[in-house]
Every structure is written in C-alpha cells, then in structure tokens.
Amino acid sequence: MTNAQDDVQATEQTASTSDDAMKSKRKKLLGYFALIVIIAAILYAIWAVFFNHSISTDNAYVGAENAQITSMVSGQVAKVLVTDTAQVKQGDILVEIDNRDATIALAQAKAELAKAKRQYQQSSANSSSLSSQVIVRDDEINSAKAQVAKAQTDVDKAKQDYDRRASLAATGAISKEELTSAQSALHTAQANLNVAQAGLSQAESNRKAAMSNLAANDALIKGTDEDTLPDVLVAQAKVEQAQLDLDRTVIRAPVDGVVARRNIQIGQRVAPGTVMMSVVPISQLYVDANFKESQLAKVRVGQIATLTSDLYGDDVEYHGKVIGFSGGTGAAFALIPAQNATGNWIKVVQRLPVRIALDPKELADHPLRVGLSMEAKVDLSSKK
C-alpha cells in the first residue's frame, strides 16, 4: 500500500515538473515572439523614417480628355461611317450631314458677291459719266452767261434808242408810231434778258445737281477698290460663312482615338450643338491617383511615378510623371458635399486627386481604357 502511494506521488511530481517545463518553454517562446515583433516594428519605423522615399495607393483610375463630337450645323444625317469601339485617326470622316441646303446657300452667297462687284464696276463707270456731265453743265453755264451778256447789251441798246426817240418825240421830230416801236423793242430786249437769266439759273442748278450726283457716287467708292468695297466685303464674308457651313456638313475626328457613346443614326435631324459621339484619345491617357492628405506633404510636380494595372497585373509596369494636383478633394466636388457643421461630426481622412501623365510608348504597347483601376507609386526622392 505504501509502495502504491509512493508511485502515485512520484507520478504527480513528474507531471508537475513537466507542466512547469512546458509553461517555462511557452513563456520563452512568447518572449521571443514579442521580441521579434518589437524588433520588426523598430526596423519598420527606421525604414519608414530613413529609407522609405515613396508613397502608394490603389485608389487610382485611368482618365482622358475625351473629344465631344458635335454638329455645327442643322440638317439631316446622311451617313454615319463609324461605330462604337472603332479606331479612328485624326481627320477621318465620322458623320456626313445632307449638304444640299448648304450648297444652295453657297451658290446664293456667290451670286450676291458677283452682284456687289458688278455694282462697284457700275459705280466706277457712273463716276466717269457724272464727271462728263459736270463738264457739260459748265459749258452750258458759260453759254448761258454769253446769252445773258448779249441780252443785256440788246437791252442797253434798246434803252438808248428808246430814250433818244422819246426826246425827239417831245419836240415832234418823230411820230408817235416810231416811239411805240422803240418801246416795243425795249420790252422785247428786256424779256429776252429775263429768259437768258432764267437759262443761266437753270444751267447753274443743273451743274449743282450733277456735282451732287458725282459726290454721292464717289462717296460709295472713294478710297476703295473692287475688293475693299464694304458691300463686297459683306458679300465675301457671307460666301466664306456659306463655305464653312458646307464644310461642316462633313464631321471629322479631331484626334486619334476610339469611338465611344455613339448616339446618332442615319436620317436623324440634328441641330447645332447636338452631341453625336465621343472620341477617346487612348494614346494620351492619364491616371488620377487619389492619395490621402497625410501622404502629400512631399509630393511635387515632376516626380517619377510607377504604376500597374489590374488589367495586366504586376507583369506590366507603366512609368509616368506627376503633372498636377486637383483644386479640391473628391468630397469637395461631390454633387452633395458633406456638411460637417453638425454635432455628430466625425473626421474622415480626405483624398486629393494627383494627376500622373503616362508614357505614350508604353500605352501603345499595352493599351488602357478610361476608368480602369491602377495602383500608383510616387518616388518622393526623384525631384525635390
């Protein structure tokens, strides 16, 4: 009985010793683990403070300055030569609008221009004719003055003859009939003088009218030629506008890219400003990387960025440069901005879009599309 109790006690002592050993070992392992964690934290802190010269974010997306294709004239769509996803080059025809109205308008404008030039030529010819008329009126005035002078001489002669005969008649040297005849001759000469003076006045009036017509005609073309006459310039501007409207019936791609959001059909009538489609310039893409505000203290324009896309994974790496910062955070430009002037305000870390330009050669080798997710890493030591 005593031996059995001794065996039990020995067993219990052995188990207790084993438990103590396990606890001691566990404490050592936990101590080692804590030491490793502390050392790792210290090493990370040292790396973060002294060796980490970059920031990164996976909140980044591909963007582009899309070209909106709009109509500049009104009319009916005659042809649509592209579809969504089509690759186009700058200058390729996208849409054709019925140009018959524009062609007629151009013909009318050209006719108005020809008419304006012909009117200038007519005015120039009228100037020569009116100048000749002024010369003719001058000759008429000179002739009328001569007639007035002759009539005045006849009046003076008839007056002298009448006065002489009146003196003789008073002495009875001549008959009453001779005096009456002299008086009639004086009246006739005076009447002829009045007619001659009226002719002179008419000639002078005719000359003034000719001078006025000449001045009015010269005012239309003075200091101009056929190409600088105001009426010609207005008609020429209408021709250029009509030609421009005709050219605008053919809508071309403004940039190289891919057609997107086409919403135009053949036969549809469009008005100026109607959006027909967009062209995405896939060779000029950029990335808007939304970094936390706490990451941006050392970010500068011109710093080198390395990017990867979810489309190609880590196998394809893009290189770019920081080209600018947004004027405000995403929350500031939201349709419904956050209202923090409340008693339940909770501070939220804001993100500011940083624009990164991509290398066109790399985009040509591995094309991206607008809206794709990217991971961006900016080297803070690349440019101070």
From TrEMBL:
Swiss-Prot/TrEMBL GO biological process terms: bile acid and bile salt transport; response to antibiotic; xenobiotic detoxification by transmembrane export across the plasma membrane
Topology class, membrane: Single-pass membrane protein
Keywords assigned by UniProt, alphabetized: Cell inner membrane, Cell membrane, Membrane, Transmembrane, Transmembrane helix, Transport
Predominant location: membrane
Domain Multidrug export protein EmrA/FarA alpha-helical hairpin: 101-201
Entry superkingdom: Bacteria
Family matches, as Gene3D superfamilies: 2.40.30.170, 2.40.50.100, Helix hairpin bin
Subcellular localization: Cell inner membrane
GO cellular component: plasma membrane
Family statement drawn from the similarity comment of this UniProt entry: Belongs to the membrane fusion protein (MFP) (TC 8.A.1) family.
Entry protein name: HlyD family efflux transporter periplasmic adaptor subunit
